[in-house]
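input
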Amino acid sequence: MKTRKTLVPAFLFFLLMIISPAVISSSQVSVIPGSGGDLYVNMGFDFDWIFGSRGDGLRQGGTVSTIDSNPSFTSYNPAVLAFLKNGQASINLALPIISSNTVGLFMKGGFNGTIKNAINQPSTDSQNEYGLLMSSGFSPNINSVDASVSEGTGFTGFEIMAPFAKGQAGFGFAREDKQSLDFTMMLTGFQTELNITDPSVPLENIDVKAALNAIINLQADNIVTSFGVGRKLTNDWGVGAVLDHYDSRFLLNASASADGTATQSGEPAVEFNTNTYNSTAQSANANLVSDAWGLRFGTAYHFNQDNLELGVDFSVEPELKYSGPSSAISHVIPDTIDINDISKTIENIDPNANGTILIKMPSYGRLSFAWKSGFTGVINVTHYFDDMYFIAYNATGRQELHLDMMQDIRIAFNFGGFQIGGGGIYTRVWQKDNNGNTKNLLWMIMPVLSTGTVIPVGDYLKWEIELLAFPSPMFKTAITYAFL
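output
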């Protein structure tokens, strides 16, 4: 029996779509119906690099000052540690309020029903993306969808700050999950019957029957442990420095396989399944880790009995280099298949699977001005010295994606029981291919906005609530206890 590599994407459509969409192209496919199958998706995410994890800045669009009523040294000018009025300990929490279940209340058919309809009725864009596979009549017709998407919930970190040296100095310690992602997708029981023809070979007529299964699990965490100290040089002038340790992990487990048979023009069927000699299994696995150190330092001067502030601080962010064991294994159908040959597929192990991934957060300098006059007003002007970027080395070379945040202006107002703030970041998004060619993808002013409140609970306890933030997160909170 003879077949072609161009027929492989049709036979393994779903698992190759999940593992490597780039291989999906086949001018040989005329009809691809499909039915059945259950799809399960669960995703949780959290990030707070725009606003910080707690403090007034979280509720003021990331706009911060050393005269804030509820400071946090993890995202503030480190000189804030020199002006502590008392010690405090905080735990940070994310509440499960915004999720797919909440959004689904406003969707006809609910969230899962909307996702199911979107899959079973491919859009024009999807047809263009997968070419003839879609236009030939392909329709997944998934039986059921169980999808859950939400911001990460639960405990996200803690922070401790306290003055010493008779209030002339202060220290801080914190450990926080700055960015996290937990994604799982599983497809089971999908069955498809394919009929494939080649206009250039009128007698060729191939029928394929297959059952497809696939699963992907992706986890990413970026834990930052911070150590800080601040000192007053005079009663009005303070300095501070913070050392940040980044501990990051990227974990990927993905696999897919198809059990089925293929016949060509009435010849005996060839079976493909999970047996070693005729396996169709595809897999990708990675366990990458990175750790690095960052440094922040700053100074602030208070005027008029702590009612005016002028401050400046700098952040030197590290480049995170991810390394660790990884693999990518695929099984493909060869150009020709002998019905009497025991081996029906060829195993390919990607030698470039152990490539390098680099991620960089931008370093910056920030100028702050704040005043108290019945309320507290704050202005931050930030200049970024380098790009936030993602660089990957793989079989095709070096691929780069950059977020060049050039200038950042934010303003905030704290009315005691209510805080609000925001601004815009002048940003350019661009990429570089392995030939060194650059391409601008987008110029924009990235809007930022957040608001919230602080509710006193007795004399020493405060409940900090971030109600709304754009672009994210929403409904983050902290419980802060004041002591000393």
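quick obs: The chain has six helices and 24 strands.
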